[in-house]
Amino acid sequence: MTFASETKRRRTFAIISHPDAGKTTLTEKLLLFSGAIQIAGSVKARKASRHATSDWMEIEKQRGISVASSVMQMVYRDHVINLLDTPGHKDFSEDTYRVLTAVDSALMVIDAANGVEAQTRRLIEVCRQRDTPIITFVNKMDREVREPLELLDEIERELGMPCVPMTWPVGQGKSFGGIINLRTQAMTVFESGQEKLPQDFETIPLTDREALQKRFGREFDHAMESMELATGASPSWDSEAFLTGKQTPVFFGSGVNNFGVMEVLDALVDLAPPPQSRTSTTLVNRQPVVKEIQPEDKDFAGVVFKVQANMDANHRDRIAFVRMASGRYTPGMKLRVQRTAKELRPTSVVTFMSQRREAVEEAYAGDIVGFTTHGGVQLGDTITDGASLQFTGLPFFAPELFMTVILKNPLRTKQLQQGLAQLGEEGAIQVFRPEVGGPMLLGAVGQLQFEVVQHRLKTEYDADIRLEGCQYTGARWITADTPAELRAFVDAYPQRMALDAANTLAYLCTSPYDVRLAQERFPKIHFHPLREHA
Length: 534
Ligand code: G4P
Hints:
alpha+beta, eight-stranded antiparallel sheet, 15 helices, binds guanosine-5',3'-tetraphosphate
């Protein structure tokens, strides 16, 4: 197979939903029907063990589980499909955002009874900002749910883009008869149960209208009417519009009953985009110049979108998840971390085929490669096999919650510093070191992040800490056009200056007015609510 066809046959997507809409179930069925796993239950079992306890600390202890199931690769119809899971809890929305920077499309799962829920809304916003193409799956049609027309209307409003139905439900709940496939003009008949494979469901062409009417009665007529209304009101399918995030194909089904799942799997192959180009900057005559990296480019280039500490506390190694943007990975190849210009020396390199971690033989643009290292790699790092460039677009958000770190046993200072540096590099939390000295500050977007970090500092670094509230409510990364302007600003607010894990200077605020006042006083200083890479 040629290089270009290897990249063209890849699909990399994230699965997004509000908790309980059926994301885990659908993930499992996609893996099952592509042949990536043999028995149902393995993904769910993992989730069950994650949910078995309400104690977050316990959940965090089982981090290895979420590592294993956060990236999954499958092969279907000769296509390599990379599925990236997104954390469900809103306190980890930063992680989710970063995962969404690593994909080319998203699969949105909606509970047909609940419509678009809060957490989904937040994720949609992120996709919209990036014009990520979204495939919509309306799940749980076997339950008493809302009218499909009403649901489409809501999805259109929430997404701000037209829906194009690809399948249409006949009835719902107890009278759920199946789905009409608009492309093949045939109805697939629903049967409940988990034993059936997608191809086992009976299909009847719409030309057999009498037979369908006889069998499904009013439900069928009603479905035909509403389907006509829906297709009349929606634009026709336009691949270009979908690929630029301007319309979404909608599928109906019931994940738990294996129903309507194959249509989604086929859509990933037929509709979802192959790896897209990625924006980077490179230095030409010492000036940063924007450079688009094409998936077919021969040189290896990728970006670290997630760093996760490994399970083995004795080794303190970490997996850097790299989304490949171009090139081909083969074992033993020499790679460099652009930020430090140092060689990446992984102890192992894995892909996530069939949910097992397997030594990688080769990988192409679109694939996710996990490099296990002892450090030297941070979130947002660009990895290449030589070329000097830096990918953009992996953001850190200015935290809104702050806590002061108090070490219980001062003899553990070294461990604390090491722990905070590593957790900061992982993006588990943001760490700020005040310029004037004093205790370190932790900044988070969600409250749970504090608990996780406190727990991990204790168990992984033997540093027992107490967290105390502090006066800060926000931070802005600051830059200036000239060093003199920056110095003047720093001198004016010495108590407010702090460096983050990447040694980027930030201004700490105690109220929303702070930034405005500081900006008025120093009009030439730039205040950034998010920072990209170091
Ligand atoms: P999540 O990952 O989005 O949080 O959702 P998950 O797949 O775990 O599904 C949430 C619940 O919804 C599960 O029930 C699951 O079985 C159920 N479910 C998923 N798809 C469908 C569907 O098409 N129809 C119906 N009726 N239910 C569906 P649970 O009671 O929490 O777990 P379980 O004991 O049934 O596994």
